[in-house]
Design goal:
This protein has 3 domains: 2-102, GIY-YIG endonuclease (3-Layer(aba) Sandwich); 118-211, no CATH class; 224-285, no CATH class. The protein has helices at residues 2-17, 57-64, 71-76, 88-102, 149-163, 182-185, 199-211, 251-256, 266-278; strands at residues 36-41, 50-54, 79-84, 117-120, 127-130, 142-146, 224-229, 234-240, 243-248, 283-285. The protein is built from 9 helices and 10 strands. Keywords: DNA damage, DNA excision, DNA repair, Excision nuclease, Hydrolase, SOS response.
Length: 286
């Protein structure tokens, strides 16, 4: 009974301190029912409070006004602005870039990860390699994108557990000459380290498990324009080696955006890989 009463009291208190942000009502009048990115601004012109995206700007922004959990942000907000896009893809790209460059107070921070790494398999033993040393957009035999070396090795251990692979043959621990690994005695390793299975079978299972994590090399020689058509507008998203250069309204403008991007953009890759390769959007080779 005590726990239920406490829970009720906390919920009541949260609702009690919430007040509808009447001072922001004026900014709702012009909100369109179309995709785009919106920004809640506070007193500072340089540090937004919150940046979000939606396929329906008006509906999404108004949903913030009905959320007591966001009372603190709404009390600090002084105005709302928005940028329409052709569709959800353009909204995702713009939102990710704006959050990364403007670092709004109430968003999860998206910063360039200098430890971004992957597993590379050129022979039998996977190696952890870093985006600071290799261009991941055009390096072959990369599997998975990880925030740290530890995360990459933990994924490799997970694959070893699922596929009964040998930690010694994967480079995760040292093997003693002429002896199998400790996991083989526990039947957690199929025994490639002690002759109970051919090394080729071990390698095949490793390769098959890694294939689901393959990082796709950029398949074009240069930049491409991905055409996204919406009800109110059409945009050409210019992409080069998984790096979003910007969105424009004409092919002539798209050609002017071409430049060499710097570094591998993890967020851009996650957003763009499937849409680009699926054939869902018309492409213009630039």
């Amino acid at each position: 009974m005590v726990r239920r009463a406490t829970s009720y009291r906390l919920e009541f208190d949260a609702a009690a301190i919430y007040q509808y942000p009447e001072h922001l009502r004026q900014w709702l009048d012009g909100l369109p029912n179309q995709p785009g990115v919106y920004v809640f601004h506070g007193e500072s012109d340089n540090l937004p409070l919150y940046i979000g995206k939606s396929v329906n700007l008006r509906s999404r922004v108004m949903s913030h006004f009905r959320t007591p959990d966001e009372a603190s942000m709404l009390r600090q907000a002084r105005r709302v602005s928005w940028i329409p896009t052709a569709g959800d893809l353009g909204a995702q790209l713009l939102e990710a870039q704006m959050i990364k460059t403007q670092q709004p107070l109430f968003n999860k921070r998206l910063r360039k990860n200098r430890q971004l790494c992957s597993l590379q398999l050129n022979d039998t033993v996977p190696q952890v390699v870093y985006a600071r040393d290799l261009d991941f957009s055009c390096t072959s035999n990369l599997y998975g994108l990880f925030r740290s070396r530890h995360a990459a090795l933990e994924k490799l251990k997970s694959i070893a557990d699922e596929q009964r692979l040998c930690h010694g043959l994967l480079g995760l621990e040292n093997l003693r000459s002429g002896r199998g690994c400790f996991r083989a005695a526990l039947k957690r390793c199929a025994g490639a380290c002690c002759g109970n299975e051919p090394p080729e079978a071990h390698q095949q299972r490793l390769q098959q498990a890694l294939e689901a994590l393959r990082v796709v090399c950029w398949p074009w020689s240069g930049a491409v324009g991905m055409v996204e058509r919406g009800i109110a507008m059409t945009q050409i998203h210019v992409i080069d080696h998984w790096f979003w250069l910007g969105s424009v309204s004409s092919e002539a403008e798209a050609r002017q955006l071409q430049r060499i991007p710097h570094g591998f953009d993890h967020d851009g890759y996650k957003i763009l890989c499937r849409p680009l390769l699926s054939g869902e959007f018309p492409l213009i080779e630039l």
